[in-house]
Amino acid sequence: MGADLSERIKAIEALPPLRDVIAQHGLSAQKALGQNFLLDMNITDKIVREAMARDGDDWNGVHAFEIGPGPGGLTRSLLKSPVAKVRAIELDRRAVAALEGLVDAAQGDLDVLQCDALKEDLTTMADAPRVIVANLPYNIATPLLIGWLKQIRADHNAYKSMTLMFQKEVAERMSAAVNTKAYGRLAIITQWLCQAHVIYDLPPSAFTPPPKVMSAVVHLMPRELPADAPDFKMVERVTAAAFNQRRKMIRSSLKEYMPAIEALGIDPQMRAENLTIAEFLAISSFK
To answer: Considering only Cβ atoms within 10 Å of each terminal Cβ, which end of the chain, N or C, has fewer?
Structure first.
């Protein structure tokens, strides 16, 4: 660490309010960047507390990543935790400038990197253990998640945990159970690779500007997979075929996988939403 934690907290709490930082730097939220700022420090502190508690309160030596910090509310909360360092990925030059005061206050414990999170491999930027805690830009939230899940399939130690803000509808699809309308590719891939828990919902009024939809915070804890776990691309391929024609029976939508379906004793008259995650994985693994 660049500074003692108590010194870091003291320096951060002496910073001007977030609304003053926004006004000083003309940092109006831009729809094109999927920006909805979270300015209530009670909420950002709670997100960090919840993430730590679900990780067993063991964040000493952890490297934290944040995507789209904006004016830095959640960044401040992360820096008040015992993480070794925070790396904030921000595409918006205005926000990078607005975070300069926080960088100074963090005394070496915050790096702000101006780049596109979709093009970056976070695992090359810091050693494990790593956590991601972010109010994700809604327009790129799902592709970001899929990219991180691919890394977890390759190495379940890629991230200790991920605590992420999504539109509530996306959070519901991630955590959906079999035989429900929301159950689909995202639920299968997410729950195959992680324990996924929706921590709580946030109303539009929690954000500036308020989005038109509810939001939800989801905590994801990577699972350790068996040695014979299927390839990520194969699971993507099978689930895509099944859910692109979700109203059809799998004997039609998964026609090319019928030898596996028959050998596994899966009812070919079921539809995609009736198959469990284990059944999708078994089809994807079938040789």
So the answer is: C
